[in-house]
């Protein structure tokens, strides 16, 4: 049974995502091996904005959603955000290519700004009840040292009001 996250909840245990580490190159055809990211453990020691989108390279996700965060990274960092992580139901190679297409090319993103990961099989998104068919719903969760301080989903198609950088910044 899905359990929607609420402010004040601890971030769930046993949540993992997969990603392909940036290689320093922006060549979309170069692939690495997937790495498991233990979000439950990692989120205990930092302030993270977890952003879910229906799909990499899709119109709203690329044109509005990702660009809102790219434009506001300095403001997010000034509010104490250690990491912004984008997840989608796409596999880790597609997510890595999407990161490269948006200029992510080195491991400094692990501690400084953005990372693109896969919610393979929608495992996490299903567990919190935020899916649309076979894709992740558009949502944002702020986790501050293991505690959920904001969690909301956009229910209007094409809207990033609650999950875009502006909406998230207003909650930090």
From TrEMBL:
Record PROSITE patterns: THIOREDOXIN_2 (PS51352)
GO CC terms, sorted: mitochondrion; peroxisome
Domain Thioredoxin: 5-172
List of catalytic residues: 61 (cysteine sulfenic acid (-soh) intermediate)
One annotated GO molecular function: thioredoxin peroxidase activity
SUPFAM superfamilies in the cross-refs: Thioredoxin-like
Keywords: Antioxidant, Oxidoreductase, Peroxidase, Redox-active center
Keyword Oxidoreductase: yes
Highest taxon listed in the record's lineage: Eukaryota
Any single biological process term in GO: hydrogen peroxide catabolic process
Alphabetical list of CDD domains matching this protein: PRX5_like (cd03013)
UniProt function note: Thiol-specific peroxidase that catalyzes the reduction of hydrogen peroxide and organic hydroperoxides to water and alcohols, respectively. Plays a role in cell protection against oxidative stress by detoxifying peroxides.
Protein family (similarity comment): Belongs to the peroxiredoxin family. Prx5 subfamily.
Protein name: Thioredoxin peroxidase
Organism annotation: Lasiosphaeria hispida
């Amino acid at each position: 049974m899905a359990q929607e996250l609420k402010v004040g909840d601890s971030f769930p245990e046993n949540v993992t995502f997969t990603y392909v580490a940036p290689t320093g190159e922006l060549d979309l055809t170069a692939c690495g091996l997937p790495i498991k990211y233990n979000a439950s453990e990692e989120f205990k020691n930092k302030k993270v904005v977890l952003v879910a989108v229906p799909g990499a390279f899709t119109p709203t996700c690329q044109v509005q959603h990702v660009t809102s965060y790219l434009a506001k990274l300095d403001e997010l960092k000034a509010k104490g955000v250690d990491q912004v992580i984008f997840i989608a139901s796409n596999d880790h190679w597609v997510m890595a290519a999407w990161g490269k297409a948006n200029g992510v090319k080195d491991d400094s993103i692990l501690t400084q700004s953005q990372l693109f990961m896969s919610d393979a099989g929608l495992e996490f998104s299903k567990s919190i009840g935020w899916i649309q068919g076979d894709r992740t719903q558009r949502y944002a969760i702020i986790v501050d040292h293991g505690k959920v301080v904001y969690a909301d989903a956009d229910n209007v198609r094409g809207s990033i009001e609650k999950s875009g950088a502006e909406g998230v910044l207003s909650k930090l």
